[in-house]
Design a protein that fits this description.
Blueprint: H1 3-11, H2 30-45, E1 48-51, E2 62-65, E3 71-82, H3 88-91, E4 93-94, H4 95-109, E5 113-121, E6 125-131, H5 132-142, E7 148-149, E8 157-158, H6 159-172
Parallel strand pairs: 3-5
Antiparallel strand pairs: 1-2, 2-3, 4-7, 5-6, 6-8
Helix pairs in contact: 1-2, 4-5
């Protein structure tokens, strides 16, 4: 499966996710998939996501820009691909890295951060996300202190949720609190 086919399949409003494909359908180019997703969002929905060189390692590598080129949100992408089933190790982050980004979002970036997971494994295909606010709330409610942060996939939003939030941000040209 090509990057274009993967993204088109995941972003189709008629696709019921999570999909299960056979192992031969795994595309392995992280950059190609992320780049095509960004192109797709721009061509289909006029959502402008751009890569940038952040001044801090805590900042995500992508920005969602409004019509006036103002920053509406930040995005951290993660493409997970495997010919086998998805594991918690596949979607885990070092807690220190996630915590630094969540802190930066609250105190320096003053914009929401979306953690977007493009998942292409033998048992799950789809685009899912969580926000810095969801992570912060989860950590505060559970006194989280592990070295590794693993999102709870059943609590993540899907592509249609992400699209709705980004379009609302664009339409209102304001940040989500």
């Amino acid at each position: 499966m090509s990057s274009q086919e993967f993204i088109s399949l995941c972003c189709s409003p008629t696709t019921q996710l999570p999909l299960v494909m056979d192992n031969a359908d795994i595309c392995s180019s992280d950059i190609g998939v992320i780049d095509y997703f960004i192109q797709y969002m721009k061509s289909q929905y006029k959502i402008n996501i751009v890569a940038w060189e952040p001044s801090s390692r805590a900042y995500p590598n992508y920005m969602f820009l409004g019509g006036d080129r103002g920053i509406l949100a930040y995005i951290s992408f993660r493409y997970i691909h495997s010919p086998s089933t998805i594991t918690s190790d596949d979607i885990s982050w070092k807690s220190k890295d996630v915590l630094n980004t969540v802190r930066a979002a609250a105190s320096q970036l003053d914009r929401p951060v979306f953690y977007v997971y493009l998942i292409n494994t033998a048992d799950r295909i789809g685009i899912y996300f969580e926000t810095d606010e969801q992570i912060r709330d989860r950590w505060l409610s559970t006194d989280f202190s592990a070295d590794i942060y693993t999102p709870i996939t059943s609590e993540m939003g899907d592509f249609q949720n992400l699209l709705s939030l980004l379009l609302d941000l664009k339409r209102n040209n304001v940040k989500v609190s």
